[in-house]
Design brief:
The protein has 221 residues and is an alpha+beta fold. Helices cover 55% and strands 19% of the residues. It has 2 domains: 83 residues, Roll (PH-domain like), CATH 2.30.29; 129 residues, no CATH class. The chain has a 4-stranded antiparallel sheet with strand order 1-2-3-4, with no helix packed on it. A 3-stranded antiparallel sheet has the order 5-6-7, covered by helices on one side. The protein starts with 5 loop residues before the first strand and ends with a helix. About 3% of the residues have low confidence.
Length: 221
Amino acid sequence: MDDSRTVHWRRDASTSRTVRVLWALGVGTFLAAIALIVFGRFYGLTAETGGQSIVVATLAAAAVAIVAVVLAGQADDRLERLGRYVPFWTPSGGSFRQALDAAAGAVVMGAIIFALVLFVGPGIGFGLATATIPFAVVLIMLSSFLQSVGALDLEEGRLYLYEPEVSVDLDLIEDVSVRHVGDAAMVKLAYEQPNGQYVQGPRRLVVPPGIARELQAIVRS
């Protein structure tokens, strides 16, 4: 493809704050549930030894440390440099960033779950806390739906999508409707049916607004 006539885009956790937050809260909910189960076990075991305050203080200190690291500027870069001194480990900036996002999401969702149990009451609170698990699945699925990576070849008149790889001839697209939601554009593609044949290709996409406008202008022209 000729790069001078091709428009590339990438919409994922590294470029979209919406995708990043949804993924962090979704994964963080599972981590928070596991952490609170382990915390509850240790809290119960230390009831007779009087060490419950130590367990609570440890959990609170871990949460504060995670928040402090996330709020610090370029925290993932610092951790990546530190990881270079660990033998048999190849650090990756993307993996560090994802780990920090998941940890921050765990702190937020852990605080919500803890508040539900503490203030609503054990019965209803535990029920609402349990409901956060399917809610987390929805968040992860939504973050996956809002991601897209591809290219729009203006010279060849083709739309290329990656992950999975799909190539669509723009001449086969009959119309493009666009709905803007925040920093994203929800694109609906309507295909022609030459000789009554079904045309394979994505029917709905989530792309940056600029890509949506370019695609709509090409098809309608």
